[in-house]
Amino acid sequence: CFGFPLSIFFIVINEFCERFSYYGMKAVLTLYFTRFLHWDDNFATAIYHTFVALCYLTPILGAIIADSWLGKFKTILYLSIVYAIGQAVLSVGSINDLTDHNHDGSPDAIAVNIALSMVGLILIAFGTGGIKPCVSAFGGDQFEEDQEKQRSTFFSLFYLSINAGSLLSTLITPSIRASECGIHSKQECYPLAFGVPAILMAVALVVFIIGSRMYKKVKPQGNIMLEVSKCVGFAIKNRFRHRSKKFPKREHWLDWASEKYDKRLIAQIKMVLRVLFLYIPLPMFWAVFDQQGSRWTLQATAMNGDFGFQIQPDQMQIVNPILIVIMVPVVDSLVYPLIKKCKLNFTPLKKMTVGMFLGSMAFVAAALVQVQIDNSNPVFPAAGQAQIKLINLGAVPATVQFKPQLQSVDVAPNMETGYMTFETSKLKSLDIISGNENKSEHLELTETLRYTLAFKWVPTGINATWVKDNVTSKPEDGKSLVRFINNFSFTVNVTMGDMDFGKLDPLSVSNYSVVPNPGWSYTIKASLPQYTCTVDSKEFGYGGAYTISLDDCVENKLFVTHFEDIAPNTVHMAWQIPQYFLLTCAEVLFSVTGLEFSYSQAPSNMKSVLQAGWLLTVAVGNIIVLIVAGVSAIKEQWAEYVLFAALLLVVCIIFAIMASFYTYIDPNEIEAQFSKEEKKEDKKDQDSNEKEAETDSRL
Prior knowledge:
Elements: H1 7-27, H2 29-36, H3 41-70, H4 72-93, H5 110-141, H6 148-178, E1 180-181, E2 187-188, H7 190-210, H8 224-241, H9 263-278, H10 283-289, H11 295-300, H12 319-341, H13 348-376, E3 385-392, E4 398-403, E5 407-411, E6 415-416, E7 420-423, E8 429-434, E9 437-442, E10 450-458, E11 461-468, E12 480-486, E13 492-496, E14 499-504, E15 513-515, E16 523-527, E17 532-536, E18 545-554, E19 557-566, H14 577-600, H15 607-631, H16 637-660, H17 667-698
Parallel strand pairs: 3-10, 12-18
Antiparallel strand pairs: 1-2, 3-6, 3-7, 4-5, 4-8, 8-9, 10-11, 12-15, 13-14, 13-16, 16-17, 18-19
């Protein structure tokens, strides 16, 4: 088909579906841990990076199975089945109603959900990791030797399908997650958010099977990684045996393997080890890079995602693949040629060093954003303190005096004050003065709590009500809270959208309820004794808390006043774009160049060894994050960002020093030299055999 083997179209479609499945599931994973399983941020981060680390450790196992035992086709087939089962198990494990027998909206046996989720993630890790090294190589196997151009086009289509799957899934699955579903209670729809990737993985498997008769299936030919491991192991073992000084030293410790392995293989392994030595500092970059899906997503939950339409916190990850698609061609066709024209020797290792530096700067930018978020957060009372907010619901100005002689506050009609902090041991009472009336309140406040004092002047005196706010922190997960206060002189029944706040007596306050979609406007309905009044609410900000006063009703139109108890998220998600931009620049310089450098410095038959080494650095990087998240005593998130930025900067300097001692080689020249020597030896052997044959014939 158009000069291509028909089989490769099945492989490209399979890859698109598989990448959609993986990135779609991964995009919502951190919020699933914190919001559904209710794990704290550090534990959720640790488990997330454990999963990613496992995804990058298993490709080595997949490559060995494919090359030494099952072959690529069977490895992809069997592990894709494991992968699809894992996605299905994860989706089932996220069903809230699975163990919610009392229908209260919370699982009665959360351990069941956790167990299913962990089993699902382990199966996914083995599935996605195991097929990772096989699919692209299997696609390459479909071409004949003279189809180099078509093979190159295939790899372009292959990586395009990866980016397309990543882009679409990161956009779609967070939107599905943000919707509500459930049998007995409506909550964030994780079963569908994980279910769609599970369906796509099943589609990927079916598509792959449909094309099975068209594939060219190359038999397993042995795995070079095992051969390299055996050679290195024998060299170390032989060197240890001959550690006595009576044995002469050899030029390189690998030369101790020469008794068993040929010189060409030893020379090839030496080339690989020179590159692998440079890999030692690289995990620190991945420790920073992979926090896009954990710490940066959690950071986005405390930010304002209003772009004219609402962006979900886990959708911000889409910035990276979008920028990659734009920047790779720009850097290749514009930036690098410009640097070359300026006659700057911008070697691959220098590019990687600059990439690490930019990665460090990305986390400095993240720290600055975090400082802004922390500064915008409300200050809650500390030990020995309490906070009081005043709301004047009447039409007459009032003055409140805090005693003994602490302060005096004026409150205008239908207005509120901010929360004022007092030492509970010092504040004994207060007086409310409004009109010609004076009301005294004796106080016994509980420390670390917030209180709201709502009052109004009426002809018969001053009516007042005290409310414990029962909110000790800013609403999590970007949710908003709302409550109502009845400013009528009679009992009313209050609803807002589908939420029922029940009957409220005069000047009584409802409990806070979670607003399902803070960006929406809801119809507030107050059922009075003889008629019903309605009004549309204002849009609620994300992460805020509000009190709505029901003030009056004229011609069935309800008049209300919105009071802001906790300010919504004010730092905009757009402020994350600079850190994503810096990290994407770092990825282009570091990751793309790193692979290119590795392949240019490795012999043709050792590419898979370096690929395994590269994936191992990603796994170790994620292990670093889970260790830091698990043992770090740092309480401030901005300080943790600064720590990672500093560590990467130090590693960047170490890598720059190591790189300065590296000498670039051409593996093809070295291999050609070995081929020449082998030909000479073969010729000598041939000449020797001919002479022997001639001597024998004379005899």
